[in-house]
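Hey, can you fold this?
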Amino acid sequence: MAVQLIPSAADRRLLDESRGPRTMMWIMAIMLFLTVLAGALGLATRSAVVLLDRQLAGRLTVQIIEPVTAKRDAEAEATLTAVRRLPDVARARMVDRAELAALLRPWLGADGADPDLPMPALIDVDMRRASDMAVARVAGAVAAVAPAARIDRQESWMSPVANFMTMVTGLAGAMVALMAAATAAVVILAARAGLETHRDTIEVLHMLGSTDSQVSRLFQRRIALDTLFGGVLGTVLAGSTVVLMGAQLGALGSDLLSGLTLASEDWILLALMPLAFALLATLAARVAVTGALGRIL
């Protein structure tokens, strides 16, 4: 399906009723603006989910909840020593009380640093292997020295966040698909409207020997150029918006939100969207025009 992208002067006079910017181009600019934003959201949340899984996979938190301070400290030291001996454990460290106080400050204020405040001892554990058997071995070693200790897998309590972000990724993908379908529908409506507008001219072309395929290529070329130019404009505006939003998210200082980033291959995919939509619009125009010409002429 060969489509000449640079129209001749005769073709422009034949089908272009306006020399200024056409409405179709601005519609496509809006469509691509929204599509690229949705695509950027989906790609960024996918990257954040991958980063979250990588960071939390195999991370455990051991809580020593013994109320007696001296006994709690002794159990914490014994637990730390026992856990570090396990071959499945890559790293284990005691969480400093000052760190716990900082975590509690938003809820308790300055009382979070009160030395008389009963506070469990926490041990962060990084596993070499995140299998259930490896976690069970850690749990057995902890139970041997601190029977009342609790072990939490960080990925378990963050799984609702990961599930939500996965859902957002799916919704963004669905939005891109819907925008592509809407683009095809707009192209079909525009092509049929163009046929009705230039019906008399097309009849003359047929009498002069032009085929349906030749007439169809005139509409394909025009729609492809409008989609491509409008798509590039919309993509540039959407890309600028994404960069601005990324800078604002980075300024928040949130570890979770900082994972909403786009890799180089993600930017390449977004940059190819105008071309993909131009090809889609060309195909939709060909199908619409060829089918309509067979019915009305």
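Oh, and this one too while you're at it.
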Amino acid sequence: MTALVTEPAHRATGRTARPGIVALGLSRIRYEVTGYFRSPDAVFFTFLFPLVMLGIFTAAFSSAGDIVPGPGAEGITIGAYYLPGMLAAGVLLSGVQNLAVDIATEKGDGTLKRLGGTPLSPVSYFLGKIGQVFVTGVLQAALLLVVAATVFGIALPTDAESWMTFAWVFVLGLTASALLGIALSALPRTGKSATAVVIPIVLVLQFISGVYLQFNMLPEWMQNIASAFPLKWMAQGMRAAFLPDDFAALEQHGTWDLGWVAIWLAVWLVVGLVISRVTFRWIRRDA
């Protein structure tokens, strides 16, 4: 009896199997990360900017003495107080600013139109962008923490609970920021106008959300406005992870409100996902 030999489908037809959506997305991550670090302006304004600002704040205001949350409480240095805000700002810059400008530029120079003519799906493209945000965001946070501890002498948490808080705020905030960056990329009319549209939005959020100014020193109406946006909650979650419990008294409601931090970041994650899905196209409708 003659044995039947069945050839693989791709041999029988002469076709090579195409990589799947996830495989293409993973391959895009390496491409996106390489391109990111080859762009000096992106590296400075989204990767190194929080580190530079932490150095400026620490050097400029350290002579003012420690920040004390109230009578009888233990104070901390200026650098230690502003470190959580800079970590939150780094998350926002890596996700929102970086992706919004990058994708809008790719729309303007025809990159997305060319990708639309390839087998690459929007899902694979998103995976590449979000993966790049996670890689650069983790590296940025690690660098910021290492420099804070070794150069500025800032004491980092020693308990597992604080690091767990940092981890989930970081991951949830970075995911929401990445999706919001993709969503915001639809706003600029051209690639050239992307920085002019995106950077002012990000900068204003940093000033009203407790990154560059002590949140408790802002007027109540400004605190209420900031509470509608994700950066305020990311900064608050980071402060809960890195500052002593006495500093919760300086928050808007006198507590860290970690439950609300999780809820608001999750809401903004869903908002970013929905807007990204509705607005993203390989080319602009008015192109």
